[in-house]
Write a structure and sequence with these properties.
Low-confidence stretches of chain B: none
Strand content of chain A: 25-35%
Number of strands of chain B: 7
Shape of chain A: elongated
Shape of chain B: elongated
Oligomer: heterodimer
Radius of gyration of chain A: 40 Å
Strand content of chain B: 15-25%
Structural class of chain B: alpha/beta
Structural class of chain A: alpha+beta
Largest sheet of chain A: 6 strands, antiparallel
Strand order of the largest sheet of chain B: 2-1-5-4-3-6-7
Low-confidence stretches of chain A: 1-5
């Protein structure tokens, strides 16, 4: 209650609760502040911030919570820490799809990985709580800005030239000029100063015995314009939550393979992957000397074709319509209606197929050869007079004990360790004879073939092996990007306004035949003092720079 | 003046609350989570079988359908297969159909497996699109679809013989 009684100033103006300096004359409101001699706190022109209201409903309380800069700083710190922790381990969207995330994090990083996965940190930036933190920061930005910019705008709009002497003399830059210093009437000094300050492009408000010169007021709006930019930026980040606005996946494609783009009706083909190196002879010496063995990549390129599925999309033979072809290189993605495919990784020389020879086990007589693909093997092969059919295929084989009987199984779909069991039918074995082919595990396949008593051998040499290159593309959709740019641009305008311009004000009041001169700026006090020294000396009153030094002399 | 200010405050705070609500809804609600639930209509699809026939899920309206997603590389899938075969032999004439959707494997692998286990129900060859449509995780996943085409139960992981014989009663026409 004491606060409310004290808000009426000596000049007769009624100030709202929470006012520090009288809105009209600038005199400090609080008694202990009136007795002090330290420079005045000029923040927000000493206006009452809007959240400091006497009566408080729930809405007002929530409002004041978000209006606190301290709370905003805590929120920024929490977001900073969360973002930092989110970069300790790779995030889930950085992997090729189809892996078991829980298993991956536990196998790779142990108990820490388990904790990281289970606490949801492996998906920090898409989590609900991270979005809510951003939203709270956004709300705080809006409310903090509104609570400060509106009183500030009002205060600056209704400025008066005539101020309380205490207000002027408790500015950081101030001086008192006696009649002896002036050598002219205070009024003619003020008139001359008005003219000089106008020449320096100050805006001047003139009352009978008072003058206010002002420059660069718009720079005060810089921080708030910056905030508007940041709010747009944050909203753009939240827009990513709308389904389809933001996608970020990895797609691995072998040469000549067509794969579907997750969540869309598009398919993409890798026609060819090219990796080129610089010819070491053409490299500058500096690069050569570092390590003569070093190879320097010149080009990573995927010749890609994008298709749209027009029917039978779920079958093994979807109907595809070609949309666009593009050689994707680093920083030159394939773009199509907001979809982008970036070159991100590659794998060279993966086992693709092998030309194997069918021969007689003992005599070594070759009956013929056929091509065996490890990804899409056929099921029947005609080899001369013989018929070879695939009985079983294990791309990643292992022997599993099924009770007492060893059984062949596959650990995955990837041909890391392929094994085929063939049935060979022909002149030597009209009923068919079984033979195992496991090129990457000769000892085991030989042992099994011995047990089977296989009459045939199926084998290929290293020269007969065909390799394939695969590429990894990063598929991205970022529809909110224009909003990020607009936000960042507005924010930059605000920063430039606030950084490169200053709000300078000079009050000159006549009190009892003396001139009281006070000045305030939010930065570059030297420039403002220089302005005062220059203009004053032009009207014949030399004020030494030291006399305007920061500090307080109250008479 | 004061009431004006109150309205503006309430408006700004409610916009913030609305965005927060949308964010949470997006993360937690059924609609935003594309996973299927029991009671949902089973999305239709068309696939080729191992023997080259084209089948659609909707062809089996009026029958109880067990839709099983599996792979030969998946151990629990291998262990549950005999139970499916047994159930199929028992109930295929009473209106039960089993569709086993294979997860993008080579024909040779699948055919070998089918011969080894003596499976007689249709094996559907998926390139990963149907599994994506049904958001399958983990393998195996079994969906029990009633004669009206609705999902009656979803079983994540393997099913044993006893459980299966009970589950089948839920979808028999």
């Amino acid at each position: 209650m004491a606060l409310i009684e004290n808000t009426k100033c000596d000049c007769g103006h009624n100030n709202p609760v929470g006012t520090v300096l009288c809105e009209s004359c600038g005199k400090p409101i609080l008694e202990q502040d009136q007795q002090a001699t330290s420079p005045l706190d000029m923040r927000y022109e000493g206006m009452s911030r809007r959240s400091q209201l006497a009566d408080k409903t729930i809405i007002d309380q929530v409002w004041s919570f978000f209006s606190s800069v301290k709370i905003a700083i805590y929120m920024i710190i929490i977001i900073l820490i969360a973002s930092a922790i989110g970069t300790v381990l790779p995030q889930e969207n950085q992997f090729l799809p189809g892996i078991n995330y829980e298993k991956f994090y536990i196998d790779t990083y142990g108990w820490f990985g388990k904790l990281y996965y289970e606490s949801g940190l492996s998906n920090t930036f898409n989590s609900w709580w991270f979005s809510l933190l951003l939203l709270m920061l956004g709300t705080s930005l809006v409310i903090c800005s509104l609570d400060r910019v509106i009183p500030l705008h009002k205060a600056l709009k209704k400025q008066r030239a005539k101020k309380n002497p205490q207000f002027i003399l408790r500015q950081k830059i101030q001086t008192t000029l006696e009649e002896a210093d002036l050598r002219q009437s205070p009024e003619s000094y003020m008139n001359a100063m008005e003219e000089q300050l106008k020449k320096k492009r100050y805006q001047v408000i003139r009352e009978k015995d008072a003058l206010l010169a002002e420059k660069g007021r718009f720079s005060r709006w810089g921080p708030y314009i910056n905030h508007i930019g940041l709010i747009i930026f944050l909203l753009a980040a939240l827009l990513r939550n709308i389904p389809g606005w933001y996608e970020d996946h990895m797609i691995r494609i072998m040469e000549n393979e067509i794969v579907s783009v997750p969540g869309t009706s598009y398919f993409i083909e890798n026609e060819k992957f090219t990796l080129e190196f610089y010819d070491p002879a053409t490299l500058p010496d500096a690069l050569k000397q570092e390590g003569s063995e070093r190879v320097t990549p010149k080009l990573y390129q995927t010749d890609a074709i994008l298709y749209e599925c027009t029917g039978d999309c779920y079958t093994t033979t979807p109907q595809l319509k070609e949309l666009i072809r593009h050689p994707i290189t680093v920083n030159d993605p394939l773009r199509y209606e907001g979809l982008k495919f970036f070159q991100i990784d590659f794998e060279l020389g993966k086992l693709k197929s092998v030309d194997v020879k069918l021969a007689h086990e003992e005599t070594g007589q070759v009956f013929g050869q056929f091509n065996l693909d490890f990804y899409e093997p056929g099921t029947e092969f005609s080899v001369g007079e013989y018929q070879v059919s695939v009985v079983q295929y294990f791309p990643d084989f292992e022997i599993e004990m099924n009770g007492d009987t060893p059984t062949l199984i596959t650990k995955s779909r990837v041909p890391n360790n392929p094994a085929f069991t063939f049935k060979v039918t022909g002149p030597l074995s009209p009923k068919g004879d079984v033979v195992l082919y496991a090129p990457l595990n000769k000892p085991i396949s030989d042992k099994i073939n011995d047990t089977l008593g296989a009459q045939y051998s199926i084998a290929g040499t290293m020269q007969d092996v065909h390799f394939v290159n695969s590429t990894t593309l990063n598929y991205r959709v970022e529809k909110a990007l224009p909003f990020f740019f607009v936000g960042a641009f507005i924010s930059m305008i605000g920063l430039v306004m606030g950084f490169y311009w200053q709000h300078r004000r000079i009050w000159i009041n006549e009190v009892d035949g003396k001139i009281l001169l006070g000045a305030h700026t939010n930065k570059n006090g030297f420039g403002l003092r220089q302005d005062i020294v220059d203009t004053s000396s032009k009207v014949g009153v030399v004020i030494p720079m030291e006399q305007l030094k920061d500090g307080v002399k109250v008479k | 003046m004061l009431s004006n200010q109150k309205i503006i405050r309430a408006a700004i705070l409610s916009v913030a609350v609305l965005i927060a609500a949308y964010t949470l809804w997006n993360n937690f609600s059924n609609q935003a989570d594309p996973r299927l639930r029991s009671g949902d209509e089973a999305p239709d699809f068309t696939l080729q079988t191992l023997d080259g026939q084209t089948v659609s899920l909707s062809d089996y309206r009026g029958k109880g359908v067990i839709l099983n997603f599996w792979g030969t590389f998946c151990l629990p899938c291998r262990t549950e297969m005999p139970a499916f075969q047994q159930q199929y032999e028992l109930n295929k004439d009473n209106g039960l159909e089993i569709l086993a959707v294979n997860m993008d494997e080579a024909e040779a692998s699948v055919q070998g497996f089918v011969n080894q286990y003596g499976l007689t129900f249709p094996i559907l060859m998926d390139k990963g699109r149907v599994a994506e449509l049904y958001r399958i995780d983990p393998l195996p996943t079994t969906m029990l679809i009633n004669p009206d085409g609705q999902i009656e139960r979803i079983i994540l992981g393997p099913v044993d013989e006893k459980a299966l014989s009970y589950l089948v009663t839920l979808i028999m026409p």
